[in-house]
Amino acid sequence: MEKGTSFLFAGVHFNKKKFSTDFSRFQKKKENDELVENLSLNENRESDESEEEEKDEEKVRVKKRKRKAVGSGPSESVEGFSVFKSSKSVEATVKEENEKTEKKLSQEKKKFYQQQERDALFRKEHNIHVSGNTVPSPLIDFAELSSRYGCKAKLLRNLADLGIKQPTPIQRQAIPILLSGRECFACAPTGSGKTLAFVCPMLMKLKPASKDGVGAVILCPTRELASQTIRECKKFAEGSKFCIKLMTKQLIRKADLSKFSCDILVSTPLRLKLAIRKKKVQYLVLDESDKLFELGLLKQIDCIVKACSNPSIVRSLFSATLPDFVEELARTIMHDAVRVIIRRKNTASENVKQKLVFAGSEEGKLLALRQSFAESLNPPVLIFVQSKERAKELYAELLVDDIRVDRDSAVDNFRAGKTWVLIATDVIARGMDFKAINCVINYDFPDSTSAYIHRIGRSGRAGRSGQAITLYTEEDIPFLRNIANEMKSSGSVFPSWAIGLQKKKWKKHRPRRDTISTTPRDKGEKKK
Ligand SMILES: Nc1ncnc2c1ncn2[C@@H]1O[C@H](COP(=O)(O)OP(=O)(O)OP(=O)(O)O)[C@@H](O)[C@H]1O
């Protein structure tokens, strides 16, 4: 018996003589289905067939019908007639298959729920709060960037070289969200590594040195922050071919923006629209989003969002303060976005020890500052005032004291450690990352709670501890309540009497203050 037919004939009593014609035909074709067909045709021609053979043929017919019904090929069984499964056995097989599928599904479901439980516990442990449809699991460590997302070793090495060993909570959650192509709006404390949270997915997903338009756009509210973000991006991308550009006035003047291309473009909202019009932007980040959404810039932001018309764009919003109106705006422009809050929304960093000092008057403030320098202040110190003019005035006063002081135009000197005290306005209150600032002094009371959170957040960054001193005068007292609440919720000692103050709607508290000067002057005189 030929190899090809052996399993079909095993155990079958077959009268080859009587069916010699058909048998030879069958041998030629060697097709199992053909054999079944022939056997069935022969039933009519050979009326004197033995009972046993008739039974055999009947079984073949049953088998044929069954095979048609289930659409399967020949059975894998090799023993006798078990090859022609009965209707019962087919049903059993189907049932078995169904049971197997159900079991597999329920195991997958179980696995999914177990993973969700683990994620929930992990998020709780790291103070990560999320809302949105099936949020991707947070990162356990940076190594997961390669195991889960195929991150190149170079990026991980760069992070390690920068001393970035473990992801911060915002990085643990926001990176997988953005890598999964989901949009997100995130609120995480100052100095908690939001920059890497949005830059890392770009460096993993964008093709370096692509000439195909602008891969990613990072919008910052100030030039100072944009320059810093560029520096950070370049550090993370060290050794790669990424083209990372800062949008400057010169660039706008020189370049033919219709042909302009780069991988990551960092810019303030001004004039960005021209550079990205008709370009296939894949990532759009609004850093310090609440500042960007402030009324003055809203129109420009709207234009930029519209200009980024790539339907598969991934947009994200990041800030340490996320007011409700920004959330509402975010929801109108984003689809299926995930909301990520680290710790509690709109709270000051826990790493900053906050203190309120009553100075009575403007003169009292200067005395209190001098006293602090004489007694306890360790550089570097960052002092915030409410205007450039006041920065000039205070600078002149501190120069007299022979303190190594500079004004916000001298940010680089301060960064390099050449000056120990920097007097600044709110222009550098957001996002600026000065290493190891020991103390922030709010010489002039901040004009809003979010300004307070961002100002004092220049200290206590990347897990370091810091200090913040806020001087206040009589006219600031009505606005103390919110600051005291901030102190309370971030674990600093707070004046409980201030919590009991009447709630006041805080609209840019920037009173006209007396000139900063200790030189005697006529009573009632006010310098400009
Ligand atoms: N995983 C990490 N481990 C250690 N340091 C980190 C990590 N991620 C970022 N950093 C460092 O922490 C510092 C603060 O990061 P970053 O400026 O991104 O904070 P931020 O959350 O954007 O703050 P802000 O709200 O003030 O803008 C930077 O010096 C950065 O290099």
Automatic annotation (TrEMBL):
<keyword id="KW-0547">Nucleotide-binding</keyword>
<dbReference type="GO" id="GO:0030490">
    <property type="term" value="P:maturation of SSU-rRNA"/>
</dbReference>
<dbReference type="Pfam" id="PF00271">
    <property type="entry name" value="Helicase_C"/>
</dbReference>
<feature type="domain" description="Helicase C-terminal">
    <location>
        <begin position="351"/>
        <end position="502"/>
    </location>
</feature>
<dbReference type="GO" id="GO:0003723">
    <property type="term" value="F:RNA binding"/>
</dbReference>
<feature type="region of interest" description="Disordered">
    <location>
        <begin position="34"/>
        <end position="79"/>
    </location>
</feature>
<dbReference type="InterPro" id="IPR050079">
    <property type="entry name" value="DEAD_box_RNA_helicase"/>
</dbReference>
<dbReference type="GO" id="GO:0005829">
    <property type="term" value="C:cytosol"/>
</dbReference>
<feature type="domain" description="DEAD-box RNA helicase Q">
    <location>
        <begin position="144"/>
        <end position="172"/>
    </location>
</feature>
<keyword id="KW-0067">ATP-binding</keyword>
<comment type="similarity">
    <text>Belongs to the DEAD box helicase family. DDX52/ROK1 subfamily.</text>
</comment>
<dbReference type="InterPro" id="IPR027417">
    <property type="entry name" value="P-loop_NTPase"/>
</dbReference>
<dbReference type="InterPro" id="IPR001650">
    <property type="entry name" value="Helicase_C-like"/>
</dbReference>
<dbReference type="InterPro" id="IPR014014">
    <property type="entry name" value="RNA_helicase_DEAD_Q_motif"/>
</dbReference>
<dbReference type="InterPro" id="IPR011545">
    <property type="entry name" value="DEAD/DEAH_box_helicase_dom"/>
</dbReference>
<dbReference type="InterPro" id="IPR044764">
    <property type="entry name" value="DDX52/Rok1_DEADc"/>
</dbReference>
<keyword id="KW-0378">Hydrolase</keyword>
<feature type="compositionally biased region" description="Acidic residues">
    <location>
        <begin position="46"/>
        <end position="56"/>
    </location>
</feature>
<feature type="short sequence motif" description="Q motif">
    <location>
        <begin position="144"/>
        <end position="172"/>
    </location>
</feature>
<keyword id="KW-0347">Helicase</keyword>
<feature type="region of interest" description="Disordered">
    <location>
        <begin position="504"/>
        <end position="528"/>
    </location>
</feature>
<keyword id="KW-0694">RNA-binding</keyword>
<dbReference type="GO" id="GO:0003724">
    <property type="term" value="F:RNA helicase activity"/>
</dbReference>
<feature type="domain" description="Helicase ATP-binding">
    <location>
        <begin position="175"/>
        <end position="340"/>
    </location>
</feature>
<protein>
    <recommendedName>
        <fullName>RNA helicase</fullName>
        <ecNumber>3.6.4.13</ecNumber>
    </recommendedName>
</protein>
<dbReference type="GO" id="GO:0005524">
    <property type="term" value="F:ATP binding"/>
</dbReference>
<dbReference type="Pfam" id="PF00270">
    <property type="entry name" value="DEAD"/>
</dbReference>
<dbReference type="InterPro" id="IPR014001">
    <property type="entry name" value="Helicase_ATP-bd"/>
</dbReference>
<dbReference type="GO" id="GO:0016787">
    <property type="term" value="F:hydrolase activity"/>
</dbReference>
